[in-house]
Write a structure and sequence with these properties.
Bound molecules: the ligand O=C(O)c1ccccc1NCC(=O)[C@H](O)[C@H](O)COP(=O)(O)O
Oligomer: single chain
Pfam families: IGPS
Protein name: Indole-3-glycerol phosphate synthase
Order of helices and strands: HHHEEEHEHEHEHEEHEHEHH
Catalytic activity: 1-(2-carboxyphenylamino)-1-deoxy-D-ribulose 5-phosphate + H(+) = (1S,2R)-1-C-(indol-3-yl)glycerol 3-phosphate + CO2 + H2O
Shape: globular
CATH class: Alpha Beta
Keywords: Amino-acid biosynthesis, Aromatic amino acid biosynthesis, Coiled coil, Decarboxylase, Lyase, Tryptophan biosynthesis
EC number: 4.1.1.48
CATH architecture: Alpha-Beta Barrel
Amino acid sequence: MSILDQIIERKKREVADAKSKISVFQLKDSEFFDRPTFSLKETFKTKSGIITEFKRKSPSKGIINDKVSPLEVVSQYENFGASAVSILTDKDFFGGSFDDILSVRNHINIPILRKDFMIDEYQFYEAKSIGADIILLIAACLSPTQVSEFTELAHSLNLEVLLEIHSEEELKHINKNVDLVGINNRNLKDFKVDLQHSVDLKNKLPNDILSVAESGIYNEEDFRFLKEKGFDGFLMGEYFMKNKNPGEKFEEFVSNVII
Ligand SMILES: O=C(O)c1ccccc1NCC(=O)[C@H](O)[C@H](O)COP(=O)(O)O
């Protein structure tokens, strides 16, 4: 079974368990549920275009950094120009939690992407209840119909949708309502990173859609290459997180690459 299949199997059990404990009605009662959300499409216009990710570990890299707190890191990400922060909420494979979002929500004024594996409507209500602004839909885990229905639900909750694709086959998951399309440079089956593959796929996207280059951006040259090829946004996790002070690393990066 591939890692992605294992994650989805675990996620199905996790969602069933959560549903048996907390109803959608209770989720709607959260202090965050009715708050006005922040828009990534807007912060792309005014900030760096970089979505910095808070991630403690991953299946491909193991432990990346389990010594820093979400608040200290994402506050610096915001101060130094991140357009949004992506925060992993998957516990088993990425070491994340809802608390990672809850602990920062009232302290930052940029969009938060709930980074998880969305397979059930219930998770959208969860995302809203913890203060997220954006959700990720991974084409490899969903049918085009699910993408379309989940997008509609997300929008009804004022959440923006970042749809992640990796292959030409997954282009058919794109519909006119998704807010942004992310192209994952990393193949989730074998974890190989190929920036050129993403550039080739980007050239096949509809012209008017905002595009995000995701994963495996390991240095300034990678970033410049992808920017030059026309990507609007860049999702970066490990490159900053692997440092003792991820926020400082981001500051240094931004001062070198953003003119
Ligand atoms: O990164 C993994 O090992 C992974 C494995 C299976 C599913 C998803 C995975 N990664 C999630 C991500 O999308 C990345 O955390 C994100 O794009 C940032 O990537 P990076 O800059 O390489 O940390």
